Amino acid sequence: MSKLLIFDSTLRDGNHAVKHQIKKEHIEDYCLAMDGTGVYTIIVGHGNGLGASSLQVGIAAVPEREMLHTARKSLEKTRLGAYMIPGFGTIKDNLEPAIAEGVEVFTIGCHCTETDTTRQHIEFLKKAGKEAYGAMMMYHMASAEKLLEEAQKLQSYGADGVILMDSAGASTPEMVKRAIGTLYDSLHIRVGFHAHNNMGMAVANSYTAYQEGASIIDGTLRGFGAGAGNCQIESLVALLEKCGVKTGIDFYRMLDASEDIMPQIMDRDMGQEPLSIVSGQAGVFSAFKIHVQKAAKEFHVDARDIFKELGRRKAVGGQEDMIVEIAEKLGRPAGSNINYQLESLL
């Protein structure tokens, strides 16, 4: 098996958890603390990636190039990474400026059945001499066979690896085993896994992915991320080391960063609060939670019902407008009898 690479998305996925309000000084402090700890890359940016800062999904507190420039100045030993979903970002407006700011590792995301949308971006990055990985979001919505078909496209575009993203935190270990095992057996590039913790399975599912051949695990310190958060990388490293896996991580330095830096960035502890559990069970993109809470409050409806309907419609990232539509249809006059008190979720 190839050496395990830890992708650190704390300063990207974690931005979801604070409505994309991670500050410049947080980026600097975090990168200084984590540089040289052994994580392969620190991915920085808006929660939805390059080009995503907008009224629709949230305006970032720090402009994109300033985030990348700040991180680049603070990293000497660890690669700077960025994430982009075609449609939010473009080659000209986002990838080229990111390269100019010193980004070395790029992950290009798409819905798990739409990898053709990444072709020009991956091919551009490879021609530019950069590492490029394809990320297949909401992987639970496709069969292992379909995932392999799409992953083979990413491989043909020149991607250095394929990362399955459990964007909804909907995975069971059996699902991970089947999907990762299928890709690992058939591809000649790296396979990776990005977990969410909606049902409390992020570390277990990431460990299962590693056992099935994944050589990239994407996670965050303290599990800081969308919805119930991500795979907590310090917990995963502890588990791997206990099982005899030499991760190459400076574990104490990672724990120091978790203890000293993360409380400055986080506004709450991550965990499986009720609405995130429903989100995972329904198989809905974790980053929808804040938008669902807002719509539920505005239209006086049960946030759980919105998630259930989003799951029934198989909503994916980028379809945030659907949330308001559903809430409006579910809406009842203010003061009507609602058995479930929304306030308990907020």
Strand content: 5-15%
What is the average of the pLDDT values? 93
Strand tally, please?
8
Overall radius of gyration? 19 Å
Q: Outline, from the CA principal axes?
A: globular
Oligomer: single chain
Which strand order does the major sheet show? 1-2-3-4-5-6-7-8
Low-confidence stretches: 336-346
How does the helix and strand content classify structurally?
A: alpha/beta
Kindly report how far apart the N and C termini lie.
44 Å
Helix content: 40-55%
Element-level helix/strand string: EHHEHEHEHEHEHEHEHHHHHHH
What would a concise description of this structure say?
The chain is of the alpha/beta class and 346 residues long. The chain is 42% helix and 13% strand.
Any chance you could write out the topology, listing elements then pairs?
Layout: E1 5-11, H1 13-17, H2 24-34, E2 41-44, H3 64-74, E3 79-84, H4 91-100, E4 105-111, H5 119-127, E5 131-137, H6 144-156, E6 161-165, H7 173-186, E7 190-194, H8 202-211, E8 216-219, H9 233-242, H10 251-260, H11 262-265, H12 274-282, H13 289-299, H14 303-312, H15 321-330
Parallel strand pairs: 1-2, 1-8, 2-3, 3-4, 4-5, 5-6, 6-7, 7-8
Helix pairs in contact: 2-3, 6-7, 7-8, 8-9, 12-14, 13-15, 14-15
